[in-house]
Design goal:
single chain, mainly alpha, 0% strand, rod-shaped
Length: 142
Amino acid sequence: MFGENLKTLRKQKGFSQEELATRLHVVRQTISKWEKELSVPDADTLIRLAEILDVSVSELLGEKIEKDNAVSDVAEQLSKINEQLAIKNRRSRRIWKVVLIVLAGLILINILSASCYSVLPGPSKNVRNNSEITVETEMIEE
């Protein structure tokens, strides 16, 4: 417990083993042994260590201190936001594709129907009513 807490707190404060050893007037290997829990500091050194790390002795000796994961948490949140934006962009593209296909289909149908009506013959001016033909036939017969 103590070794892990020491290492976590030292890194949170931005100290190397060498820097912390210099402040405590011990050698770097001593700090390494404490972090590996191969040895422990005496009471006076423990108090000075707690003061340098701005924690109480009970915190230093107590339960495991969680590492500061603020940077990884932010990166994880940014990754999630990025993924959500990508999904939203894909949906938008799909919607625009469908809209464009429907519009193209409607335009094509209008063009085809307009061309069909222009090709089909309309009522002919040469076609006569039956009543006109009958009148002319009667006139010829007389």
